[in-house]
Design a protein that fits this description.
The complex is a heterodimer. Chain A has 3 helices and 5 strands. By secondary structure, chain A is an alpha+beta fold. Chain A has one domain: Ubiquitin-like (UB roll). Chain A is globular. The termini of chain A are far apart. Chain B contains 3 helices and 10 strands, in the order E-E-H-E-E-E-H-E-E-E-H-E-E. Chain B starts with 9 loop residues before the first strand and ends with a strand. By secondary structure, chain B is an alpha+beta fold. Chain B is elongated, with a radius of gyration of 16 Å. The chains are: A alpha+beta, B alpha+beta. The interface between A and B is medium-sized, with 23 and 36 residues. Chain B: It comes from Lentinula lateritia.
Chain lengths: 99, 156
């Protein structure tokens, strides 16, 4: 992936539950390309970014849902078609256990 | 204990219902008062509490986190779906975040309706949907085990 160090676009990724316990963080701000960046690419980017220290991350992300700006991404939705722009808030939604 | 910045208190009101995520749940008498309506003859309440064991292990406490802004939206959707089934009811749904000790309540649901059948049904419907969909997570701590190894549970 080409360098995004000059990118002015950023997204915030929120982690909860097992995702945050595994990574040791609850959120991070990530630079992204200004155009054409999708949720499938974000998933790969997060794995690339964190997997060395957190080998279980891929498995956690594979079993999680996603939300973008507090709207759930449907289970049947093609992640490559979910485009992410500057300022968006993405959350990793691990299997829930409320109640 | 990591606490997400998005796991905060919040309340969302819609016609005839109040959904809240709270650090401290209201006393049940207050919640009953909130749903009481002279037009309605039935009040049903559900209180979910922390059990002291799970699969033979002694539970010392539970910890809950929420993605509050989304959890509240999802609760509102559940209320709207309940209203498609039963037009007339008032509901209060409260979920606690943070530590919930053994015997302590984590969720309270109160529903009032003209008659008992709808009140029972609506309360159960809301509970089952909250457990299925709302963006809240529970971590279970066992006696004698390292807290850092405590597992986040899943309702599926």
């Amino acid at each position: 992936m080409s360098s995004t160090s000059t990118s002015t676009a950023h997204i915030t990724v929120l982690y909860f539950a097992a995702a945050s316990t595994t990574l040791g963080i609850t959120e991070e701000k990530i630079p992204i390309p200004e155009k054409g960046f999708d949720l499938s690419q974000l998933k790969d980017l997060l794995v690339e970014r964190h997997s060395r220290d957190n080998p279980t991350l891929r498995k956690i992300l594979d079993s999680s849902q996603w939300s973008v700006d507090a709207e759930m991404v449907g289970d049947d939705e093609d992640l490559t078609k979910v485009e992410l722009g500057d300022g968006v808030e993405v959350a990793v939604i691990c299997p829930v256990s409320g109640g | 204990m990591l606490s997400p910045g998005s796991s905060v208190e919040g309340t969302l009101e819609l016609p005839g219902a109040i959904c809240s995520i709270k650090n401290t749940l209201d006393p049940i008498e207050n919640t009953i008062e909130q749903v009481s309506d002279d037009r309605f003859g039935a009040v049903v309440t559900f209180i979910g509490t922390t059990r002291n064991s799970f699969q033979g292990k002694v539970v010392t406490k539970l910890e809950y986190q929420a993605y509050t802004k989304l959890a509240l939206k999802t609760m509102a959707t559940i209320i709207t779906e309940a209203r498609n089934q039963t037009a007339e009811f008032q509901a209060v749904v409260q979920h606690k975040i943070g530590v919930v000790g053994v015997g302590e309540p984590s969720i309270v649901i109160a529903v009032s309706s003209p008659h008992r059948k709808e009140a029972f049904h609506t309360c159960e419907f809301i509970l089952e949907e909250v457990k299925r969909k709302v963006q809240i997570w529970k971590r279970e701590y066992y006696e004698g085990e390292d807290e850092r190894q405590a597992e986040w549970k899943s309702n599926v």
